[in-house]
């Protein structure tokens, strides 16, 4: 499979990464090189093979549904580029 | 006192216990060595004051007879590990000023056992690379050079700063991470020992995530015994990581030097890839002979899906990365580039904060997970992963205790040699290492010889799940037979 420039722009938008027009052609070439490389997998017969979903066979652990951490908004917000009144601040999202 | 940096962790521990020198003296020697090694660019942040404070506390505990097993040992920590109050960046501009308010489980266990933090080590951005050239802090220079040449070589990656610092004796040992070979390939390029333990052996809590089903922490050290000592401290169950294995941690040091008589070692014929250098082939044969001489039985085996591990890895790793790295949005941490609305803020922040390789990997990952392609790529890769794991399970079921393979297809290459052209060429660096991450198995890289140009070459031993002890026993056989490899020309000083 190979991607065209419209797909590169769509994927960049899905990934929330701005791309300039100059970058699109370059990225298209790079993405197609990588996709050509992984296309090899098409040769493998995976009929009746289960996809791997757990690396080490183990039961997912459960814990009591209680709050056991938190209550320090200052520490949580310490690295925020913009914070106000104990919240992360962003441009207006809902009019 | 600069001779103190020559000591392995094991020897330094002995010297501290005997009172031949103090933790403060040992730490000061390393602090000075770090300061003198700027040309390597191995550390992205040195913490000399904290190191000396920790060393003083170690001296007090030693005096009181309360020394931990790593008491007073100065370590470097890859910048993937969150360190409380100490800047942690993954060597990316997008979190270039991030100061974690928490400590990763693995590093907290190292401090619990008395180790001293010398600083944070350079790496490829978000651990995405095999040469340490994608770091926002610039490339690391390998302390090794080809005989008669001053050309700067890469230390491998992504734990390139860790491996270079250990090889240059500017830290006693280091904590690294390995998603597709990021501990073992740089260890091989620098003549050091690196182990990626079984998935689940070390907690991933507080380690910046790249590909969660593949990432594992592990040590890089100057001897097999040092690596065993470090792993014993780093490993263990952690309720904060739901994939962490609830198993007791064995005494890995006790396994070093244990007999390997009667162990069955598999040589996978599929690892004889086209274009492999004749030096690597002969190193591999020599390694097999070393194990035979120690009483192990070496047999040829088949791991038929080997050639598909690398393409499947790039789908799984990049898909997981695109999901994990979605959190870097300029809202909760990191640099923010303003936009007219929230979407533009995200897009501009991520375009500016991520480097080229990271942007490329996120986009591939996004593509393979996008509507209409999920089955063709991601699901297919996860099925291939089942087959890769089954190959190993079949070999183990036939009585194979460990697999011997090269660690890398070549010795260290020059800075800039592979970074300009086709990204796939760099990806091929991981051809011998990714299979283990895909199968969740442990692997150790141990230096086994020098190339004709005088560069270190490494072999890799692959074990059964949670079979790290066997790997330490077998790796020690290679270390005993091949010797240890130290840089003789300290040109950076």
UniProtKB/TrEMBL annotation, chain A:
GO BP annotations listed: glutaminyl-tRNAGln biosynthesis via transamidation; regulation of translational fidelity; translation
Any one GO MF annotation of this record: glutaminyl-tRNA synthase (glutamine-hydrolyzing) activity
Pfam families to which the protein is assigned, alphabetical: GatC (PF02686)
Enzyme nomenclature, EC number: 6.3.5.-
Superkingdom to which the source organism belongs: Bacteria
InterPro entries: Asp/Glu-ADT_sf_sub_c (IPR036113), GatC (IPR003837)
NCBIfam families: gatC
Role according to the record: Allows the formation of correctly charged Asn-tRNA(Asn) or Gln-tRNA(Gln) through the transamidation of misacylated Asp-tRNA(Asn) or Glu-tRNA(Gln) in organisms which lack either or both of asparaginyl-tRNA or glutaminyl-tRNA synthetases. The reaction takes place in the presence of glutamine and ATP through an activated phospho-Asp-tRNA(Asn) or phospho-Glu-tRNA(Gln).
Name listed for the protein in its UniProt record: Aspartyl/glutamyl-tRNA(Asn/Gln) amidotransferase subunit C
The organism of origin for this protein: Ancylobacter tetraedralis
Designated gene of the protein: gatC
UniProtKB/TrEMBL annotation, chain B:
GO molecular function: ATP binding; glutaminyl-tRNA synthase (glutamine-hydrolyzing) activity; transferase activity
SUPFAM superfamilies cross-referenced by the UniProt entry: Amidase signature (AS) enzymes
Catalytic reaction equation(s): L-glutamyl-tRNA(Gln) + L-glutamine + ATP + H2O = L-glutaminyl-tRNA(Gln) + L-glutamate + ADP + phosphate + H(+)
Keyword tags: ATP-binding, Ligase, Nucleotide-binding, Protein biosynthesis, Transferase
InterPro entries tied to this protein: Amidase, Amidase_CS, Amidase_dom, AS_sf, GatA
Entry GO terms, CC: glutamyl-tRNA(Gln) amidotransferase complex
Disordered, as annotated region: 130-158
Annotated Pfam families: Amidase (PF01425)
Catalytic site positions: 78, 158, 182
EC number: 6.3.5.7
GO biological process: one example: translation
Domain Amidase: 25-471
Keyword Heme: no
The protein's assembly and partners: Heterotrimer of A, B and C subunits.
Family to which this protein belongs: Belongs to the amidase family. GatA subfamily.
PANTHER family according to UniProt: GLUTAMYL-TRNA(GLN) AMIDOTRANSFERASE SUBUNIT A (PTHR11895:SF151), TRANSAMIDASE (PTHR11895)
Functional description taken from the UniProt entry: Allows the formation of correctly charged Gln-tRNA(Gln) through the transamidation of misacylated Glu-tRNA(Gln) in organisms which lack glutaminyl-tRNA synthetase. The reaction takes place in the presence of glutamine and ATP through an activated gamma-phospho-Glu-tRNA(Gln).
Protein name as it appears in the record: Glutamyl-tRNA(Gln) amidotransferase subunit A
Organism per entry: Ancylobacter tetraedralis
């Amino acid at each position: 499979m190979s991607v065209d420039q419209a797909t590169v722009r769509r994927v960049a938008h899905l990934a929330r990464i701005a791309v300039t027009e100059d970058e699109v052609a370059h990225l298209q070439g790079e993405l197609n090189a990588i996709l050509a490389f992984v296309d090899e997998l098409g040769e493998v017969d995976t009929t009746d093979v289960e996809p791997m979903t757990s690396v080490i066979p183990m039961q997912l652990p459960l814990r009591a549904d209680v709050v056991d951490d938190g209550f320090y908004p200052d520490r949580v917000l310490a690295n925020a580029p913009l914070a106000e009144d104990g919240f992360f601040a962003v441009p207006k999202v809902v009019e | 006192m600069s001779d103190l940096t020559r000591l392995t962790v094991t020897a330094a521990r002995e010297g501290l216990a005997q009172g031949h020198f103090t933790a403060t003296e040992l730490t000061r020697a390393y602090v000075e060595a770090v300061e003198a090694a700027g040309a390597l660019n191995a550390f992205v942040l040195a913490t000399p004051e904290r190191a000396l404070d920790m060393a003083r506390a170690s001296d007090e505990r030693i005096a009181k007879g309360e020394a931990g097993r790593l008491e007073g040992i100065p370590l470097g920590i890859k910048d993937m590990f969150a360190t409380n109050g100490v800047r942690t960046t993954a060597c990316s501009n997008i979190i270039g000023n991030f100061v974690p308010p928490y400590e990763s489980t693995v590093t907290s266990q190292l401090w619990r056992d008395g180790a001293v933090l010398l600083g944070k080590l350079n790496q490829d951005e978000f651990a995405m690379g095999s040469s340490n050239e994608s770091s926002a802090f610039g490339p690391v220079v390998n302390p090794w050079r080809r005989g008669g040449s001053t050309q700067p070589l890469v230390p491998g990656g992504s734990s390139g700063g860790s491996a270079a610092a250990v090889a240059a004796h500017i830290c006693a040992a280091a904590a690294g991470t390995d998603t597709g070979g990021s501990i073992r390939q740089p260890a091989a390029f620098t003549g050091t020992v690196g182990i990626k333990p079984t998935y689940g052996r070390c907690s991933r809590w507080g380690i910046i995530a790249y590909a969660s089903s593949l990432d594992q922490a592990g040590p890089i050290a100057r001897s097999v015994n040092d690596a065993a000592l470090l792993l014993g401290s780093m490993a263990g169950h952690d309720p904060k990581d739901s994939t962490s294995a609830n198993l007791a941690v064995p005494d890995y040091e006790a396994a070093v030097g244990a007999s390997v008589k009667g162990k069955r070692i598999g040589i996978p014929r599929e690892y004889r890839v086209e274009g492999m250098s004749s030096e690597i082939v002969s190193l591999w044969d020599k390694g097999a002979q070393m194990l035979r001489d120690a009483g192990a039985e070496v047999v040829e085996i088949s791991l038929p899906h080997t050639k598909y591990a690398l393409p499947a890895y790039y789908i799984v790793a990049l898909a997981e990365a695109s999901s994990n790295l979605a959190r870097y949005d300029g809202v909760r941490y990191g640099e923010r580039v303003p936009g007219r609305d929230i979407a533009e803020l995200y897009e501009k922040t991520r375009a500016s904060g991520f480097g080229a390789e990271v942007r490329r990997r996120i986009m591939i990952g996004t593509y393979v997970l996008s509507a209409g392609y999920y089955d063709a790529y991601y699901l297919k890769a996860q099925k291939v992963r089942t087959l890769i794991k089954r190959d190993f399970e079949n070999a183990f079921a036939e009585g194979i205790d460990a697999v011997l393979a090269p660690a890398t297809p070549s010795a260290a290459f020059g800075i800039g040699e592979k970074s300009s052209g086709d990204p796939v060429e760099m990806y091929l660096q991981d051809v011998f290492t990714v299979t283990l991450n895909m199968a969740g198995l442990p692997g150790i890289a141990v230096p086994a010889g020098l190339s004709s140009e005088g560069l270190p070459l490494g072999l890799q031993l692959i074990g059964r799940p949670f079979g790290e002890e066997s790997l330490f026993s077998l790796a020690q056989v290679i270390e005993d037979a091949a010797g240890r490899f130290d840089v003789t020309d300290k040109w950076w000083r």
